Amino acid sequence: MTRTLIGHDSPTGRYPSPVVPVCEDGDRLLVFFRSGSEVVHEEVSAAAEFVRHAPDLRDRLRFFHADTSGLFAFSERDVISYSISAEKDFFEYLLQDARFERGDPFLRLAFAMDVGHSDLVGIEIVRATAAMQESAAEFLPRWYAQILERLAACGFLPGEWPLDGAQALMRAWLPRSARSIFAGLRPLETRVGEAIRRLRETVRISRGNGLGSQLDEVLTSLAARQTHVAIVGSNALDVAAALIDARDFDALVRQRSQDVIEFVYSENVELSEKDGVSTFGVPSPFCALGFRVLCATGFDEGLPPHLLAASDVVVVLARDAGGALATRRALAPQATDRFILAYEAEDEIDESVNAIGAIRMRRGGATRFGRSWFERVASGIAALEDAIGRVALQERQRPALRAATRRAQEIGLAHDRELEIRRRDRLHALERSRLAGDEIGGHLTDAWLRDLDLVANRCKERVTGIVDRWRLDLGSSWLFSASDRETLQRSVSNLHDECASMLRDEIQRFAKGAMYDRDQHPNVVEALQRHESMRYADPFIVEMPSFPPSHAIDSISHEVMMAATFTALPWFDGAIFPRLLGVLVGGVKSFYPNRARVAMEIKFGLLEGISAFPGYRRLIDEWAGATARAITRSFRDLRVRWLDQVAEMGGNERYELEAKESVRACLEELSAISDVLRE
Amino acid sequence: MIDDTLQSAIEQERAAIGQLPPQLPIAHLTASRWFSEILDVGELRPRPCSVFGRNLLYLSYGGLFYRPKRVSTQRATELPIGLVFSPVVLEAITSLFPFDTGAMANGGRFNTWKEKLAPFETRFCLSTSDGLRDAATLVKLLYADNLLYLRGEVAVEAAGRPDPFPLLAEFLAEDMTPSSDHRQRSIECLTEMPVALGRHLLWIGFPDAHTDEILRGVHRWSQPVVPDFRAYPCHLNFNPADIGAQLEAWAYDDVIRRYAELRT
Question: Could you report the predicted ipTM of this complex, rounded to two decimals?
Fold first, then answer.
């Protein structure tokens, strides 16, 4: 049955985004979902709303197959398809695509995780963390812990991330993050004696009159102070009996509205002695942090279950150690994996803060913690706080990335040295040109082109040398920056298969993925020239076969050399060579994502590399003018980005290098260096 | 005329019902495309209901049991967002049903039972002014306790209660898998009032795209409370049924378990 792609739907309603294909299957309208590793379809109403593709987009996506392809949309009209079997490579490509550069950081992170490239994951984690800090800092610790779990589930960074301690660290980090929020919040201060008296009075009244008005008043007063509810008291069993009877308590909640009481909040119970009077402060930052704190007293009979269930921390007030112990024992069967803070007081509540202990209840046992435990956790989280949002995170917690960073630095130094040598070469060439009396007039473009022309001429004599140099200039960075050899191998194999796919329909005698020799070139060219659209097809709209595993990295040189001999062929210049460059640029950019200088040097290198190939003059001519449409978009984008970087468009609609301020500065720098060298 | 409504039967049983199980959170599933609208107003609002012919808000008692092939909107595809609220929100509930009325109204796999239970819209409606009490009452009378309710194991005693309990128990106990899911045995909570996101939102599960914007929007209404949450990857799998199952499991692990495991 023929299923025709007629549109798509973005489930999030936004772009750029992966989108769901909508296909016609006879009279039916189908959407296709991924379900595990399979693709399943679902029939939808004929009246369902989705984005219908225009004819030109449908034509571009004509190689889409519902069962084996996916769709990604940069906008409603800019949609590309990819082969599910090669989706990791597609995602990697996507992360380098300028159209997705400012995409949703969380989507980018998900793609990076699927790609499986630890460097990419590191970069995207930093971006997503920064977004969380900016917009939703309160949720950051919990989000971060979930990301760590997902990374671990994907097989990343085993044992190197503090997964075991993440939960504890997160909880300890929360109060720090919320401190600023509550800086202006006035804690409730009530004299202990008065609070107890009022509560006892309340109990007395409530016993006589049901839930009396004074209790209502107390609670309303407390709620008005944004403390939600604080129930304070000593070991007053009658208070407990009155307040904690679940049904009455619920009834009170309902009477007072949902905002008044649900839980009792308290970060801690701070006691102070002023003028001989003990005061009792109940600040409530925990409530802002998602902690549900129940402040209880005298619950020898246990707590109302639904309140306990909704509480993370239970603060128990007791007259003495015996009372606290009894309460803890009573709560232990109920409180699983929850904190219980037991405050012991000898007479009412006194200032013996040091007596505070905390017991964390677990199934089948209890562990005692003192204040120092919390302090240790708090100091531990300081490290996490410092790390989140910084690249330093990588150095602290990821030895593998640290090693990669060292390797990168080494490569960078080697790269810098190479660039310096090349710069000197260029200056010498420039000087030679000047001495030769060429009419360069300080025009760097001409000087460069002449210089590069010399290089090209040399390279024409020895293709192998050109390729090696090209690889040295561009490929080496990528080669070493790849996390493993397989990435490069796959990419080269990918290109090779794309070539084969493009040829597949026209040249039946070439098996998919097979190479062909020089004698067969005319047939290839003739076949491709008959089909203009195939010549410059975007590789990612061509169905990509799986990668043959046999390609070894050692064969790269052979592959590239063969490709280099094809450069006079239009299809190679137009479709394959730019793609190769794109892969290299993407690779280098992934390695140096934020180094503009390196990006600039890459572009200079590209110019050299491109110019080193036969036929470069035609390409350069195309850059300048009307035949730009003859090259693929990726190549055009590359050109435009490069030209924007180094030049400005003049009145004659030609790019002029010397018009760009940054280039002028570069020229001056080169000139100064040249002067030094001359001296 | 014999009154064999669920309402009447429960009133008969109420006196001898004993201690109720602790109340469970209630949950709601919506479409991510609608969520920005919900965040704008800070509350879930009733929507037109074709079964009862008026605006209603649907919630499920004790978990996210909805397992949609598609979230019901005009769009070709939707991603679900799950919300779990404190049991306190039960106060806003005006009607309870012991099964999913939407699935029953649509017939399909429940077609035979739709006839047997007719008119289910009135016969099995438990009108309530005390949702906290009556949701737990339904659990007690049909399943005995929360864990059995969440497992879908109907209590033997349910069949011995007044009509229509025996018929209802037979329906709830029938094994209709794989064509049916937990909705067959989930308690449905209906209200004609909006439910504020506010401070009673305990948990939210949503697609991970634009996580920061969603959480910022939630916190606007929930502050100073910071609800728990889970963000599911949405760059590959758009199957609402798969995602619904994941959200149900997460909601149970993160929030509902600790209510469910409480002793009475």
Answer: 0.89
